Amino acid sequence: MNRRSRHLRLKLVALLTTAGLCACTGSGTSNGSDGEASGRNPNSGSQKSLFADSPVTVLVKSDQPGFSTPSGGESYTGFDVALTHFLAREIGFKERLRSVPGGEREQSLSRGLGDLAIATYTITEARDEKIDFTAPYLKTYQGVLVRKDNTDIKKLDDVAGKRVCTATGTTSDPGSAPGRGEREQIVDAIGRDAVIKLRKDYDSCVSALRTGVVDAVWTDKVLLEGIAEADGGHDVKVVEDIAIESRQFYGIGLPEGHERDCRRINARLKKFLRQTWRDTFTDHFPRIAAGGPGFEQQYKPTEREFKAYEAKSCGGA
């Protein structure tokens, strides 16, 4: 199978610049041939379909309010869970949800511990070298969460000298980057004078924030909005004027060698974005949605963005 370029991000920028604004279309049927790119061999991986056996194990994160949180027994609720249910109905499989720490998603997929990862999974070059991604279903800038009574942090420069927590293995963790250049970019994003503190997950970061062990939590802004929504405005708040210019695109991860399955998912994601995304987002992020119609522009991938990522998805060269 062809490996994708190390310069994926630069090529995506070029694609975004030149790609047309043609409308995304998806048949919504369960035919195994749908969603395949013309001129591309759909059987680049000869492995059995991920959907051949039931149930399909879907990896989710258990500490992401708004995306996936336990709701009793082995059940979860949230945007990612709703997307999982949508895909199960559209493709025709029974799902089994399994929680996974953010830093173990690639390893779990590669070792066969999960079939899909629908887990606020940012598409990056380093991850794309180990597993395959679909096109994106959500986008977000990064931001900062502080205690409700905090008046010191109002803009990004105010983070200098502050203890800032993020989760291990995420795109905000310098240690997760594959090389020095990438690590430097992560540090530069939050500011070199910030004191980065790592925890195993965002639950631990928020606990440290509430008790004063750290001054702020740094990650994707939509994740912070979910945390603030679950908090109900009691202890924490998102700093509205901080939007770190490092946009993240969430895709679905799957093991390498399943291009046909991946493109079937892409076809359903087009339908989800066109028909279901707005209502699903409103259900799980009512506070953001109540702020006005601009939330779609801020968090929903455009057709052009989807098309650009789709061209490089599913193990494409």
UniProtKB/TrEMBL annotation:
SMART domains per UniProt: PBPb (SM00062)
Alphabetic keyword roster: Signal
Asked whether the keyword Signal is assigned, the reply is: yes
Region Disordered: start-end pairs: 27-50
> By its UniProt entry, which InterPro entries does this protein fall under?
Solute-binding_3/MltF_N
| Record field: compositional bias (Polar residues) | 40-49
* Domain Solute-binding protein family 3/N-terminal, first and last residues per copy: 55-279
What is a single Pfam family found in this protein's UniProt entry? SBP_bac_3
Q: Which PROSITE patterns match?
A: PROKAR_LIPOPROTEIN (PS51257)
Q: Per the database entry, which stretches of residues form a coiled coil? A: none
Highest taxon in the source lineage: Bacteria
Reply yes or no: does the keyword Oxidoreductase apply. Answer: no
Q: Which residues form the signal peptide?
A: 1-23
Family matches, as PANTHER family: ARGININE-BINDING EXTRACELLULAR PROTEIN ARTP, MEMBRANE-BOUND LYTIC MUREIN TRANSGLYCOSYLASE F
Q: What protein name is recorded for this chain? A: Transporter substrate-binding domain-containing protein
Organism name: Streptomyces bathyalis
